[in-house]
Design brief:
This protein is 34% helix and 19% strand. By secondary structure, it is of the alpha/beta class. α4 runs parallel beside α5. The longest helix is centred in the last third of the chain and has 15 residues. Bound molecules: flavin mononucleotide. The site of flavin mononucleotide has 25 residues, from β6.
């Protein structure tokens, strides 16, 4: 019986396009929550994923912030890792060899402190074999603008994406920050700048205080909230962004189950990334993928693409027919 269901659900078409890259299924890992793949490979077959997005890479290695760097909250985490990473050269020499033959496309999440740093990274990665695309983390302080994040103002994001697009041969996914006034403006400006897709959301700025010590719980004082607490905000932002742009939208934020993933897809996401949930269950990607397959099959939906953003027309009709 179990075997029949497995064979049947294999017939569902799960492939999806994330900005020029067609991936076999919509389940991806979120940057910073799956290391460079090798850490998770004892627990999950790396070929499971539509794509693996690695921890954010900078030109030079970074140690990140001093501890404490992670705090648990009732329904999520606040992290202030400080973008610790091995740097571009060590990534290419030591981490990529395992990843590039793992059976899932590899997307490299990058960040810099200046536009030139982003461009140099993107250009160098364009000459490396085994990389399917670049995800631009624009939630980083721009040192030339006094530490103001690139992802806060549409004009700054536009300039950055345009410059990187010029330097990169690879498809670009711009990862949007939720810490902005209007996510639709941000999505539109990076689309106009040439981004091939957008992913959202990154973490939401947050803080936690130890009342006994009367001190912030994080060394950095402020960190980024992730996990189930942010999911409804992320779904709303994916819905808004998908309504504002024509490029693919990738949904991220608090996905713990296949139902959560389907919610993002119905809101307009063509793929999803799983983040914090990997820390609780490193096999979560496979469970979410199997759940999506079974959901489609049990609702007689043959292609994932049939439900991407499917409520948009419905809501329009509902509103048109209401007397409100
Ligand atoms: C410990 C940790 C490290 C992260 N590091 C990165 C990073 O290097 N680059 C990036 O773009 N996002 C990073 N993120 C953000 C996640 O990729 C994701 O956007 C966010 O956690 C929301 O998804 P989630 O609720 O499923 O975790 C990090 C998140 C966590 C929890």
């Amino acid at each position: 019986m179990g075997k029949t269901i497995e064979t049947d659900v294999k017939m569902v078409d799960l492939s999806t396009n994330i900005g020029g890259v067609v991936i076999k299924n919509p389940v991806m890992t979120a940057s910073g929550t799956f290391g460079y793949g090798e850490e998770m490979s004892p627990y999950i077959d790396l070929s499971t994923f539509g794509a693996i997005i690695v921890k954010g890479i900078s030109l030079k290695p970074r140690k990140g912030n001093p501890a404490p760097r992670i705090v648990e909250t009732p329904s999520g985490l606040i992290n202030a890792i400080g973008l610790q990473n091995v740097g571009l050269d060590a990534f290419v020499d030591e981490k990529l060899p395992l990843l590039k033959d793992c059976g899932s496309p590899v997307i490299v999440n990058i960040f810099g402190e200046t536009i030139d740093e982003y461009c140099l990274l993107a250009e160098k990665l364009g000459h490396v074999d085994g990389i399917a695309g670049i995800e631009l983390n624009i939630s980083c302080p721009n040192v030339k603008k006094g530490g103001m994040e690139f992802g806060r103002q549409p004009e700054d994001a536009y300039r950055l994406v345009r410059a990187v697009k010029h330097s990169a041969k690879l498809p670009i996914i711009t990862k949007l920050s939720p810490n902005v006034g209007d996510i639709r403006e941000m999505a539109s400006s990076v689309e106009e700048a040439g981004s091939d897709a957008v992913s959202l959301i990154n973490t939401i700025t947050a803080m936690s205080i130890d009342i006994e010590k009367r001190r912030p719980r994080l060394f950095n004082v402020i960190g980024g909230l992730s996990g189930p607490a942010i999911r409804p905000i992320a779904v709303r932002m994916v819905w808004e962004a998908a309504g504002a742009v024509d490029i693919p939208v990738i949904g991220i934020g608090g996905i713990m189950t296949y139902e959560d993933a389907i919610e993002f897809i119905i809101a307009g996401a063509c793929a999803v990334q799983i983040g914090t949930a990997n820390f609780i269950d490193p096999t979560i990607g496979l469970k979410v993928l199997k759940g999506i397959k079974t959901y489609l099959k049990s609702h007689s939906i043959q292609r994932l693409s049939d439900i991407i953003g499917c409520i948009r027309g419905q809501i329009y009709t509902l509103h048109k027919n209401s007397n409100l």
